[in-house]
DNA sequence: CGTTTTTGACCGGCGC
DNA sequence: GCGCCGGTCAAAAACG
């Protein structure tokens, strides 16, 4: 709350639609210096299906975002869980996080969110905000917090998958929303592109190398994507020319 | 007046 | 068992 309303600069970055992937030169040890760029995301899920998030540039952090979910990725060979006792009332849901260099905390992503909580987090002077998708029947949540190490970095964690297209599609035929529809309609229901960490107009060359090095075996589903599926997704997007059509939703404003 | 945000309380998981 | 911590609830306030 203390940093709730800094005077927004002229080119405030308030929407992920504005995000541009960094060039390789911008990447230093897995991070980038260019402001207002989405430079990393990782997923922590086992049944992730693509959504509009996929067009976000796909690089991976040097270190994972601290999260309980990051430790339960393997689980295949080990079943230390009690048979029924710990049946994991927390059923695992698709979840991934990405980091942006942005001055605003809550980036507009085309969906409508209602804030339902805010908590101070340990080892960080910045609070964490909890949002829920306002669409009835859609239980997607997201957490937004500012990095304690670099206050200019916002970490956004999505949990779950939207069961509906972006509401902004009706209002402004938003590009990212169109992407979501493209994916959704392309496969009927379910996963369209089995592994679609789509990066737009942006070769992942060195970044991809970075990802592979860090994962060692490719534990993360997003980073273990095959190049073929990635490129096919890219072509799909380019052929439809959706990226050029991206327009910002009309309701975007700078007050949080 | 309906919707969203704020914020303290509450709850459950986990480590000690 | 207890305390810490992350996540959620819900009433009140704020907002448009």
TrEMBL record:
SUPFAM superfamilies: WRKY DNA-binding domain
Main location, first listed in the record: nucleus
Any GO MF annotation of the entry: DNA-binding transcription factor activity
UniProt superkingdom: Eukaryota
Sequence segments annotated as region (Disordered): 65-92
SMART domains associated with the record: WRKY (SM00774)
Keywords: DNA-binding, Nucleus, Transcription, Transcription regulation
Cellular localisation: Nucleus
Pfam families linked: WRKY
Gene3D superfamilies according to UniProt: WRKY domain
Domain WRKY: 102-167
Transmembrane segments: none
GO CC terms in record: nucleus
Name assigned to this protein: Putative WRKY transcription factor 48
